[in-house]
Amino acid sequence: MEKLRIILLGAGTLACPLLDSILAAGRDELLAVVTQPDRAGGRGLQCQACALKTVALARGLPVLTPADASAPDTVAMLAAWQPDVLIVASFGQFLKKNLLAVPRLGTINVHPSLLPKYRGASPIQWALANGDEQTGVSVLYVTPRMDAGDVLAQAPHPIAPEDTFCTLEPKLAALGAQLLQEVLDGFRAGRTQGVPQDEAQVTLARKLTKDDGRVDWSLPAATIRNRLRGFMPWPGAFTVLPGGLLLKLHGVQVEPWAGGTASPGTVLAVDGAGPLVATGRDALRLTHVQPAGKKAMAGAAFLRGHALPPGSRLGQ
Questions:
Q1: Nearest 10 degrees: CA dihedral of 21, 232, 230, 305?
Q2: What share of the chain is helix, strand, coil (3-state, %, to 5)?
Q3: What is the predicted pLDDT for the residue at 40?
Q4: Separation CA 134–CA 179 (nearest Å)
Q5: In angstroms, rounded to a whole number, what is the distance separating the alpha carbons of residues 135 and 171?
Q6: CATH 3.40.50.170 location in the chain
Q7: CA angle centred on 91, ends 87 and 96, rounded to 5°
Q8: In which residue ranges of the chain is CATH 3.10.25.10 found?
Q9: Strand pairing partners for 63?
Q10: What pairs with residue 301 in β-bridges?
Q11: What percent of the chain has pLDDT over 90?
C-alpha cells in the first residue's frame, strides 16, 4: 500500500511523540494536526498554546484548533484532505459519528492503559493511585462509546515503585509511539481487524476533580502515598493545618506505626525528618511540603517555622 494519509487529533503530552514518530518514520504522510484552542493560563492569564500545537507549527504542519472538532464546517475541512486514518491521543473532545466517518480506514486512539481496564479520562492517574504494578498502552478503534472499540494492539509496561504521573506518562508516550507504528505497518499490509474488548472486565478511570487532592487520613498510609504519586501535579495532595492554613504535600514516606490508637491525621512525632502523621494504617512521614503562599520545602524546614506539636490534628 502507498503512504497512509493521516490527521492527528490530540492535546496532551501523549500526542507529541506520536507526531514525531510519524514524521521520523517517513512511511506515511501527516496532513494536519487538530488540537484544542489556546487557553488562558500562567501569569496574567495570557492565552497559551498547547504543546502539540507548538510542536506541529515548528514542524511546518497545518494546525486546526476548533472548539468542536465534530462541527460540520470542521468535518468538511478534514474530509477535504481525504485522510486514510485519524489518530487520536488525549484529545479531550467527544467525537461524533460524522467525524468518525471521514477516514477511509477508520479513527484510532492511542490510550495509556491495558483496556478494558481504565477506560476514561485519567487512566495513568488511577493506575498509580490504586497501587498497580503494571499498566500499558492500547491502540483501538474509536466508536461512539468511550474507549470501547476493538483493540488493534497492546503492550504492557511495568510501574516502578517510585513512578509518579510525571515520570510514567512520558514512558507510556514513547511506548505508544512505538505501538502506533506497528499498527500503521499493519494497515499498510491490509491488517485492520481488531479484537473486541471483554465488557465483563471493564473498569473506569473517571476525570479527576480538585477535591481528589484532599488527603483522607483514614486511608492506609500506602494508599495516601499512591494517590499522591498519581495526582501530581494536579490536583496534587493537600490537607489543612490547625488554624486553617492549607498545606500541600510534595513528598511522603510510609513508616510502620504501632505506638497506640491515635486518630487518623494526628501528628505523632516531629523531628529532623519532618512530621509523622497517623493514618488508617501505619503512619506517613511528610518529607516535602508547601505551605500556602510559600515555596516547597523539606518537612524539617517547615517545622522550624511552624508550630506543629505532637497531638495536633491535620485535615480538620
A1: 150
A2: 30, 30, 40
A3: 56
A4: 17
A5: 11
A6: 5-205
A7: 75
A8: 210-305
A9: 33
A10: none
A11: 89
SS3 49: coil
Q: Select from 3.40.50.2000, 3.40.50.2300, 3.30.1060.10, 3.10.25.10 the CATH code of 210-305.
A: 3.10.25.10
Cell of residue 281, nine digits: 494504617
Give domain 5-205's CATH superfamily. Formyl transferase, N-terminal domain (3.40.50.170)
Q: How far is CA 274 from CA 115, 207, 253, 259, 312, in A?
A: 40, 32, 10, 18, 14
- Which DSSP string corresponds to 184-222? HHHHHTT----B---GGG--EEPPP-GGGGB--TTSBHH
Length of the chain: 316
CA dist., res. 266 & res. 309, Å (int): 10
CA angle in degrees (0–180, nearest 5) for 169-174-177: 120
Q: In what order do the strands lie in the sheet with 134-141?
A: 63-64, 29-34, 5-10, 85-89, 106-111, 134-141, 151-158
pLDDT-derived band at 297 (thresholds 50, 70, 90) equals: very high
Strand partners, 48: 39
CA–CA gap between residue 87 and residue 245 (Å, rounded)? 45
C-alpha count within 13 angstroms, C-beta hemisphere, residue 42 = 7
pTM: 0.94
pLDDT in tens, 205-253: 999 999 999 999 999 999 999 999 999 999 999 999 999 999 999 999 9
Q: Which amino acid is at 113?
A: S
The per-residue pLDDT for 47 is 35
Residue spans of beta strands (DSSP E) within 90-190: 106-111, 119-120, 134-141, 151-158
List the helix and strand counts (H, then E) for the chain: 8, 17
